[in-house]
Amino acid sequence: MNQAVASSALRVCLVEDDDDLREEIVLLLERAGFEVRGVADAAAFYKAHALAPCEVAVLDIGLRGEDGLSIASALRASGPIGIVMASARGAVEDRIDAPRHGADVYMVKPLHIEELVATIHALGRRVRAMMPPAASPLPAPPMALEAPGAWHLSDGGWVLRDPHGLQLKLTTTERAFMACLMEADGEIAEQVHCPTRC
Asked: Which has the closest alpha carbon to 87: 37, 30, 18, 20?
């Protein structure tokens, strides 16, 4: 692992819809030495993660709109990342369901900051060990070479790439909408084209 990466602060994103709790946890994690962003919902998370990917995500399950389990499933399919699920529900069924959606760790609220910090450190070490060396350049997205000027969905339809190779991770709703546009293939995308998705 590259020494610069090993010594840099772990990038953490907290998705929590309780404003006061989110601000408190972000502050405590920053004091523990992490580079932390806090957001309130899935849409804000996907946008932030697309611009500056985090290495560990701490996800509240009970979010407005797309829940934390759905976010975890999308993240697990996108590449190496540590995922901590946080919930007030402590039933065995909930603890079993979280790993099925891609979570590494399930923590019951109220969170103990020392336990959360230790968990993030452990996940961060594992994620960084899976990353390619920084000296190895990332390959250019193939669509930039094969079809300049085109937009593409990749990673199972979860990532939208523009003609310059920039990418944006999509929410479940955005993914379904983009699938409708792609199926329309230049025609007007009406609900009749994809009644089960749009």
From this structure: 18
